[in-house]
Amino acid sequence: MYIQLNGQIIYYEKTGEGSPVILVHGNGETHKIFDALIPSLSKRHTVYALDSRGHGLSAAVNEFHYADMADDVVSFIHGLDLVKPAFYGFSDGGIVGLIAAFRHPSLFSSLAVSGANLTPFGWRFLPWLSTKLRYIKKKNPLIRLMLKEPHITKSDLSKITIPVLVLAGSKDIIKKSETKRIASWLPNAILKILPGETHSSYVVHSPKLFPLLDDFFSNHCE
Q1: Mean pLDDT by 10 residues, the chain (222 residues)
Q2: pLDDT, position 221
Q3: Burial class (CB in 10 A: 0-12, 13-18, 19+), 126
Q4: What is the pLDDT of residue 218?
Q5: What count of other Cβ atoms lies within 10 Å of the Cβ of residue 138?
Q6: How far apart are CA 29 and CA 100, in angstroms?
Q7: Contact call for residues 20 and 220 (beta carbons, < 8 A)
Q8: What's the pLDDT at 5?
Q9: Cα(118)–Cα(168) distance, rounded to whole angstroms?
Q10: Cα dist. 179→96, 113, 166, 193, 196 in Å?
């Protein structure tokens, strides 16, 4: 399905019944990364899986900013008259969720993020260097986004008082100290570092997220 938001055409898929849950993918991906999660999650929740602006079937853009993507999520919620949905975001999607949540503290019932970072310096060095070299070669605006943004502060996160589940793999491309910092700066956070998992191994085309999100959302959805 399509919806027009902020002058953008955003594609999304709606599945299931129950309390609303919004899913947002990472950089250069689409809602299809959640294909192993949605069938189980939609048995208890109405799942809205979005393609972020400039991704998948959503309209193309010339440049990318996390704040714009966060505004799209806010407009999506208001456009569909959703009442305090839960939100899960992977990587860039997690950044988007954090920004939307601190700008609109009463927007979500609960928030889950995995592999998110507060600044571009939250990456481990070798993955950051590889990304930098890819940008030099390709000049892809999506890669530039990851090198220039976000810039989320302790003051920003202090505004998010809803329950937040903070996830990362023990082998994540995001520094463990960065993930711990996110959790420590949130007033009401649960931190889980998943042993043996990489940045995406438990998320992309994986059912491993379901028990984590199902337990968290079931206890905190309104």
Answers
A1: 92 96 98 98 96 97 96 97 97 98 97 98 97 95 97 98 98 98 98 98 98 90 60
A2: 63
A3: exposed
A4: 84
A5: 11
A6: 20
A7: no
A8: 87
A9: 14
A10: 15, 10, 7, 9, 16
**Paired strand residues for 21:** 47, 86
Residue 67, C-beta contacts closer than 8 angstroms, at least 6 positions apart: 99
Which one, of 51, 63, 150, 163, lies nearest residue 111 by Cα? Answer: 163
| Residue given tokens 């979005």 in the structure block | 50
CA atoms of 146 and 87, how far apart (whole Å): 21
The closest alpha carbon to 95, from 170, 26, 177, belongs to 26
**Per-residue confidence (pLDDT) for residue 6, from 0 to 100:** 81
Work out the number of other CB atoms within 10 angstroms of the CB of residue 221: 18
What are 168's strand-pairing partners?
193
Q: What is the CATH number of domain 2-220?
A: 3.40.50.1820
The closest alpha carbon to 26, from 100, 71, 91, belongs to: 91
Rounded (5°) CA angle 43-168-113: 55
